[in-house]
Write a structure and sequence with these properties.
The chain starts with 11 loop residues before the first helix and ends with a helix. A hairpin with a 5-residue loop joins strand 19 and strand 20. The chain is of the alpha/beta class. 42% of the residues are buried. The protein has 18 helices and 23 strands. The strands form seven sheets. Strands 12-2-1-16-23 form a five-stranded parallel β-sheet, with helices on one face. Strands 10-9-19-20 form a four-stranded mixed β-sheet. The protein has a four-stranded mixed β-sheet with strand order 15-14-13-17, with no helix packed on it.
Length: 533
Amino acid sequence: MPSSTMVNRPTRRQILTRIGIVAGSAALYQAMTVMGHAQGTDFRGEPKLAGAKKGTKILVLGAGLAGMLAAYELRKAGYDVKVLEYQTRPGGRNFTLRGGDTLVELGGAVQHVGFAPGNYINPGPWRIPYHHQGLLHYCKMFGVQLEPFIELNHNAWLHSSDAFNGKPVRYREYAADFYGRTAELLAKAIDQHKLDLPITDDERHAVRAAMGVWGGLTGDGSYAKGNASSSRRGFAKPQGGGMDGAPVPSEPFALGEVMKSGLWQAVTLHDRLDMQTTMFEPVGGMDMIGKGFAKHVGDLITLNCKVSAIHQDDSGVTVTYADMSQGGAVKTAQADYCVCTIPLSILSQLDVQVSGKMKAAIGAVPYASSVKLGLEFKRRFWEEDDQIYGGISFTDQAISQISYPSTRYFTDGPAVLLGGYMFGPAAYDFAGMTPEQRVEEGLRQGQVLHPQYRSEFRTGVGVAWSRMPWTLGCCSMWSEQARKAHYKDLCAIDNRVVLAGEHASYVGCWQEGAILSSLDAITRLHQRAIGAA
């Protein structure tokens, strides 16, 4: 219907829908932010925990980031703090695998990491968005050196088995053609007065001009082979010097191929707030964050403690655990209060004396299955052969993506890339394989994008989070229904016990969620302990 005949103005939902369809997720997110429906994380600084009663004991369960941060801030406030950790190291899901490490999973499979010195893979978190200010604040405070993580690389590969004859195409080629073809369609709709929202002549001319610049259109509003499109997607013959230096424009992909491939999902991924530049990673591996935290609270942590029960009454909390360093000897620890950061996937199996509402909340949140493959190759062929320096290639195969190291460019010798990152059904399939089979399948699928895989391969590891005995999954996966029914009960202080971790946040699956949840939990617990709440 021509806009001039419309009587009713579009609703906010209709506006958002149109923006999302025409301009993608970045514009949609921006519009939602303006309307008050989305925002970044809400770190407000270090907690102010004044007035702690001397001698008050607080037991923290779990030495991941949430647990260590709780211990740090509570001790600073004057509390007597003790931390029990199941593993042989602090850090939780914040860890890094290097040459010489050993990984044992449920079922007994053992992986001996054979990476060359200096090489590593981060099986858990591997990047930090710029707006995760809570985590960035404590990294700075604890002296954890960070460097840029390259999320978007226009020269990386995009691959769809059902488009472009099953061959990978460059991100820049596809993105340029996706934007160009979309802009061409919108420009034609504007020229033909077929948009269904009220728009003035001035607005129509402005949008038409914007589409020309945004999509690299020709003067007549077409997206076609030429310098305008090739300056984005690349030239068939690049610009050179001398007599034969003139470039030759490249041929854009057909509209049907661009749209049916589904690769626009990979293009719009980088527009999501949590995937936008600038992103960071610790120098030397993600576990540098865990080690940085541990420097300040390591003396409070007792490792090899397998918790089996958490009981409480009006006077305190008693935790029963097996001391694995002493052959599983059963011990107890007592405190006035408890901050429990044990993943819900584990906590739901323990003897936990809390209210029915909290117990129901603990059991209402499943954990995602995820698999990461770390593959080491003899040389950086992705740099030397393909000019790919950092960033991510995407494929519709099960491995989903290949991420290239953002550090040590142009160096010789072996290097490690992330050879697959899977969630959902694909992750369950890979988790059901042996570690060797996971690596083999990663090589088979990866060679579609990089034919050099086989000849350059040295060694690899395949980490299945559903087989990690200390977490039984990657991270919490709240449904909208479950969050509505159980989230507040999960976060509430239950007499003398409070939970913390990424599962008790709206920033699930990110380290920032653990940080914000911990700060919130200990602030409320402090108010309870001093009698202010």
